[in-house]
Amino acid sequence: MHNRGVKHLISIASFFALALSAAAPAVAADAGSAAPAPAIPMVVVVSRHGVRSPTHPAELQPYARQPWATWTGHPGDLTAHGALLMRQFGASYRRQYGDALGIGTRGCPPAGSIFIWADVDQRTRATAEAVANGFAPGCGVAVGHASGDSDPLFDPLPGIGTVDAATAKAAVLGTAGGDLSQFYEADASAFATMERVLGCAPPAACKTIVSVPTTVVNKGDGGLASIKGGLDAAADVAENLLLEYVEGRPTVGWGRVDRATLVQMLSLHVLNKRLEHGNRYTARAHASNIMAHVLQTLQEGASGHAVEGTRVPPHSRFVFFAGHDTQLSELAGLLGLNWLVSGDAYNDTPPGSALVFELHAASAGAEPFVRTFLAEQSLDDMRAGHGERPSRVPVYVPGCPALDCPISDFAHVVEGAIDPSFVAPW
């Protein structure tokens, strides 16, 4: 481990020794009574919340010729349809991993084998509860969350580390030659489709997105850079139309949006997220903390020993973090991850999508290894309310020798990516 690495992460050398020791057969008086070691000692899932209502429904009205669809309930909350889909996702995780984790696919899992933690928002807490109910119905699996208005695991800024505002702004501007409005031309087809859906071409008395300059300001958490103007509005339009679609609304985008049209527009949402949250500086500042604790958790699973600085018990088998699409975009930027799920936009992060880190048991003479996946319910399955069988695609972690990444290599990649000054014990 680097000398300046996070002091709470155990060294690779000592970890490897512990992992091999944990993987070795136990000596017992009655060898026949020993339960077989699970093929997958641990799975760690970092998930976006499920389908929610729009968070700021009135802000986009100036860009649309007709009134936007109305939603019931508090803006930004998980919908009943979203809760149904996340229960289905939880059940699919149990079917996928129950036997491999050694906890079975039915009934209540052993006490303490499931660890679920959610961000403080209603949509994340309700998502975590729905996953718990789908994974182990009627078992009362606890869902943990912070007691205050924010959780540094998901929102470490301000509070952990200090942002350099000039560097944060340069990290965003540098991806676009200093002018983010150039994307209006680079992605002209997607913008044209969006303007057609919104219906604001002259002489309509509403504002076209491409007429609004896109700028970068230091209004993000802790002074991080954020995108304002046309591209930001386009990202929100695409997101709100996505929510209409996956909520199962009979009419989407005033009857002018089908899945192909939606996917084209979603490319603008992905672009905005990658520029604002997936740039290297923002990703390190805002995602180093959660990624450090994901690594610690996987190290606990491999060694069977507690790691100082994280609250996940070492005997946990299924670990689920309910966060936001920003976490997924930031982890992608931090580690250089990419994915493509059939029927969706490249690197999209729809409701319920998740990065899944599988820890696989060591074989003879080797060490445990990590496989990484992106899991999501298809847009059409979410729309129909049948997300029982999500898709998952392999994700390569750059710096690993293959899709199967030995835990020491995985640790080396993570430790080289994160910024320890933005990491704190949890």
How does this model look, in words?
Strand 2 (114-118), helix 3 (122-135) and strand 3 form a beta-alpha-beta unit. Helix content is 37%, strand content 12%. It has 12 helices and 10 strands. It is of the alpha/beta class and 426 residues long. The longest helix has 24 residues, at 280-303.
Output the keywords.
12% strand, globular, 426 residues, alpha/beta, two-stranded antiparallel ribbon, disordered N terminus, 10 strands, 12 helices, single chain
Could you give a quick summary of the protein structure above?
The protein has 426 residues and is α/β, with parallel strands linked by helices. 37% of the residues lie in helices and 12% in strands. The strands form two sheets. Strands 1, 2, 3, 6, 7, 8, 9 and 10 form an eight-stranded mixed sheet that branches. Strands 4-5 form a two-stranded antiparallel ribbon.
CA gyration radius, whole angstroms: 22 Å
N-to-C terminal Cα separation, in Å? 20 Å
Whole-number average pLDDT?
92
How many beta strands in the DSSP annotation?
A: 10
Which ranges are low-confidence, i.e. pLDDT below 50, for 5 or more consecutive residues?
Answer: 1-34
SSE pattern, N- to C-terminal:
HEHEHEHHHEEHHHEHEEHEEH
Question: Which class of secondary structure composition applies to the elements?
Answer: alpha/beta
Largest β-sheet summary: 8 strands, mixed
